[in-house]
Amino acid sequence: MSEAQKNKGTAFRDLHAADGTFVMPNAWNAGSARMLEAAGFPAVGTTSAGIAFCLGLPDYEGALSREAALDETCRIAGAVQIPVSVDAENGYGHAPEEVAETILKVADAGAIGASIEDYSAGFGAGGLYDRHLSVERIEAAVAAAASLSFPFTVTARAECYLAGHPNPFEESMARVVSYRNAGADCLYVPGITDAETIGKLVKEVEAPVNVVMGLAGSPLSVAQLADLGVKRVSIGGSLARATFGVIQRAAEEIRDHGTFSYSDGQVPDAELCRFFADRQESCAP
Questions:
Q1: What is the CB neighbour count within 10 angstroms for residue 161?
Q2: How far is CA 214 from CA 141, 183, 237, in A?
C-alpha cells in the first residue's frame, strides 16, 4: 500500500460522507480513465462490460476472468490520481471466502473500493443468492476491507430488478438494509429508473445510495438525482457502449457508402498526443 493509495481511499470515503451528490463515471481502460479525470470527476469506477468488450468478449459471467479484469484495473488505477472503484461482479466466486479474496486482490491492483453483486447466472434456479448467503458474502467483503491499512469502500448491490424477482422493490429493500447492517458503505439497486422509486429507496435505506444513469429510459439529471438524495451517480458500461456505437456506425458508413464523415468528430492526433503526454507527466512518481 502506498501513501497515494491511502490518500485516495480517504478521499473516496469522504465523498460518501460529504453533503451533496457526486458523479463517478465508469472507465474501461487507462485512456478513458485519464479523459474522465481531466474532465474534473472526483473518482472513476471500472466497468466489467466495457473491459470485456475491449477484449473482444461478451458481457457474460465467466467470459471476463478476474485476472483480466484486475490487470486492466491496475492500468487504470496507475494512470490517474483520483480514486478508482472496481466493478467486481459477484466477487468472482460464490463463497464468502472467495469474495474476501477478491477484495484483497482489488486492493493489490491499486483500487480503493469495489462493488459486489448478489447474483450469479450459474447459481441455483433464479441466480439470486439467498439472503442469508448474500449477507455472509458482504460481511466477508467488509472484513477483508477492514483488514487493509487504508479506507476501502464496499458497495453492496441488490440485483432483484435485473434478475426478474416478482417483488423487486420489497426484496431489494430487505437486502440492502441487511447489507447496510453488515457494514457495506454504499448501496446500489440497478434497474430502478423512476424518480419516485429512487426517492423512496434513498429515504428508507438511510445510507449512501448509488444510482446508475446512461441507460435507455433513464432521463433523470444529476440535479434531479441530487434533489432525491442520491449520493453517487455512475454510468455503468453506457459510455463504453456509446464508443462502440461510434465504431459500428463508422464501419457501416465506410462499407455502405464509401464515405468518411465519421471523422468529422474525431479529436486531432496532435491534441490527443499533447493530452496524454501531459497526463503521463502528471502521474509520474
A1: 17
A2: 28, 28, 8
Q: Give the whole-angstrom CA distance, residue 19 versus residue 1.
A: 29
Q: CA 23 to CA 42: how far, in whole Å?
A: 8
Average pLDDT score, the chain: 95
If you count them, how many residues does the chain have?
285
pLDDT tens track for 169-219: 999 999 999 999 999 999 999 999 899 999 999 999 999 999 999 987 668
Query: Under a CB-based contact definition with an 8 Å cutoff, are residues 85 and 115 in contact?
Result: yes
* CA–CA dist 285, 268 (Å, integer): 28
Cα–Cα distance measured from residue 126 to residue 129, given in angstroms and rounded to the nearest whole number: 8
DSSP H helical segments within 43-125, as ranges?
Answer: 48-54, 66-79, 96-108
| Sheet of strand 84-87, all strands in order from the earlier edge strand to the far edge | 22-24, 232-234, 209-212, 186-188, 153-157, 113-117, 84-87, 44-46, 26-27
Helix (H, G, I), strand (E, B) or coil at 195: helix
**Is pLDDT above 60 for 234?**
yes
Among candidates 285, 280, 246, which has minimal Cα distance to 31? Answer: 280
The pTM assigned to this predicted structure is 0.95
CA 263 to chain centroid = 30
Check the CA dihedral 103-104-108-110 and report its sign. Answer: positive
